[in-house]
Amino acid sequence: MKNRSGLTALRSCTLCLCVLLVSCSSIPMPSFLRNPAAEAVVYALGPRDGFTSPLNGSLKPACPALTFESTNFHLTSAHQEALHGLAQEMLKNKKARLLIAGYTPPNLPPDHARSLSERRALAVRQHLIELGLESANLQTVGFGNDFSPSGPSSDVVAVYRQN
Amino acid sequence: MNARALLLILPLFLCYGTRAEAGVLDKMRGWMGLGGKSRAEEAKKIMPRIQVGTFSGGTGTSAQQTLRQELLDSREFFVADAAEKADYIVDGTSSGGRVTGKLRDAKGKEIFQRSYAAPGLDENLKALTDDVIYTITGRPGLATSRIVFVSDVSGKRQIYVCDAEGGELHQVTHDKNGAVSPSLSPDSSMIAFTSYRSGFPIIRLLDLNLGWERGVTDTPGSSFGSAFSPDGTHLAAVMSFIGNPEIFVSDLNTNTAACVSDSVGAPSSPSWHPDGHQLVFSSDDGDGPKLFVVEVPKKVGDASRLFRWRTGYHFCTDPEWSPDGRHIAFTTRTSGEWTVAIKPYPNGGVHVVQAGGAEHPSWSPNGHFITYVQHGELFVHDLRSGNRRSILRGYGRITEPRWMR
Fold it and tell me: I need a labelling partner for A119 at 20 to 30 A (CA). Which of A141, A143, B266, B357 fits?
């Protein structure tokens, strides 16, 4: 008896789900389900002339490296706090420029690692722009696991000062 | 799939408690009588019989023996003895390492006669073997094919090329900070790769015959994952100068690029369908990389369709379309280790080729083999027999192999 009522409930749920799926195109997506990254204004990168790569010289980090976990590229509150402090400092000098470099650990497929590290670097850049920094002064690069950063973790985004 | 079809199929899945995973659609195709060729039908294919006749000249005996072995190794023919009947006969002359080969049919009618004058008997016989295979089967041979890969044996990641047996190995890039992510053009004359010589990742082209090199992209951000189109005129790659990493297709003649993806995540590793109208790539929206297929617009302004191609696995990277366009090989993760798998396109069950750390698969030009790396070692895997062998080991850490398409 219980099984029969369970089956009936399941069928009802299935029907409701089907109706929902058919009509989903006309139902607006609730704001809490929307992907914020999809709606953010994306700022194209400016010319790279004059920027120095960490591969060609020793660069000074502008803040402690931001550590990421798994294949995530969304910024945590700890990242946002660190970047807020950096932005306050950088806003005092309008001409200051930063190179944001992403790195990943060696255990990821190389091409995926490059894309993920670049995506993380771009997320950091986007947040710094939202905090008031000028987009043309912020460059990104994704090294993936082609090069290891100096430091204990290799799953990081490092922010380097440029002269 | 329209909404009405979805309405019919969804209850079927739920009521039977079936997971929507690889293989289910195949079973449904079977129930409806839409199955592909049966195993018995496949087995009916008969190998052509070929006989290696006499080669006159100073290096004739050696040429005859080596050619026989090359044809046996190709596994495309039954190689008949002199007393046996054969569908084809190949003979000719060889002196000083040069070779002239003649291919005839069973009635003695000449199909082709060609001369090979490269400096080396083996090289000439490999070229003759590939010509014989292509003429008879219509599929490219592997004797002259090349595998390009990355190794850190010199201390920095650089690009190397070897043949299908791991021989004729040589380094092709000597970039200051290293070079990665290589792709061979369809005729093996050019390599596209990501160079770090400026300190930033940019895509460059190297002509292996003439030696010239030029940049394809010098855009801000990162550029990598290049893949030649089947006709060699376009290059698909990931570029991030617009503020997002996206898949771009560059016209190598005009140096113009068009964005074909629409990602908020991290796309990588585009690979072309042999028809040159579709690309498969991996993209990570923050919950692990998955595979997507996009149609490449034929002209500017054309709409393109982008959709997710489900494999049944959560973590999928490095997809590559087979030479006949009927399968896609990719890297996934099983039991916490990298695994090379193949899935028919568009539908079919997943076949695990090799688990235990195997990654970055690439198809041989004839579609019978796959090369991949496992713990830094380069392997060639025969998909017909399931046998595999290591063709390069102890050569630093090898990554990103690609077979000539």
Answer: B357
